[in-house]
Structure formats: structure tokens, C-alpha cells
Write a structure and sequence with these properties.
single chain; alpha+beta; 4 strands; about 25% strand
Length: about 90
């Protein structure tokens, strides 16, 4: 079940970051997807943040997408726990 959910999340995110041609590098951990981007202006931030699987974004050396592993793109946002409703995730550890 996890693989189809991950594929759905990736399929929803990719066009919103400018497509595969705009991605120069990819790295991830359990909660973040870190992307190197050719052209930051191609990213559709508000649409990306509206995805139920996306908790927020952080711009650093990479464009970081904080993911809620329990949600998939079609899940309603209102079912999130109250402590995860804030759009901005905590900053990455130093």
C-alpha cells in the first residue's frame, strides 16, 4: 500500500515543481524531500502547499518539501492532528 501512496504523492508534486526537467537533484529523509531546482520561479508554491501530503516548504540550499507520511494527495486536510495544521514546518536541525 505504501508504494502506490508514494507514487501518487510524487505524481502530484512533480508538475508543481516545474516538472522533471526542472529538478537537478533529489535527496530525502523520513519527512523531507529535498530538491535541487534549475528555475525556482517554475515552482507553484501555493498549489504545492495545498496538497494534503505536504506540511510545508523550506527554502535553503535546496527546496525542501516537508511531508506528512500519514496523508496521501487525496486525503482531506481537516483530518490532520491539531499539532500538524501549521503550514510551516520547523526549521531543519543545524
Amino acid at each position: 500500500m505504501t508504494e502506490p501512496k508514494n507514487r501518487a504523492t510524487a505524481a502530484a508534486i512533480l508538475p508543481l515543481v516545474g516538472g522533471a526537467g526542472n529538478v537537478t537533484s533529489i535527496a530525502h529523509c523520513m519527512t523531507r524531500l529535498r530538491l535541487g531546482l534549475r528555475d525556482r520561479t517554475l515552482v507553484r508554491d501555493e498549489e504545492l502547499k495545498a496538497l494534503s501530503a505536504v506540511m510545508g516548504v523550506v527554502e535553503d540550499d535546496t527546496y525542501q518539501i516537508a511531508l506528512d507520511r500519514a496523508r496521501s494527495p487525496g486525503s482531506p486536510r481537516s483530518s490532520r492532528p491539531w499539532w500538524r495544521r501549521n503550514e510551516q514546518p520547523p526549521p531543519p536541525p543545524q
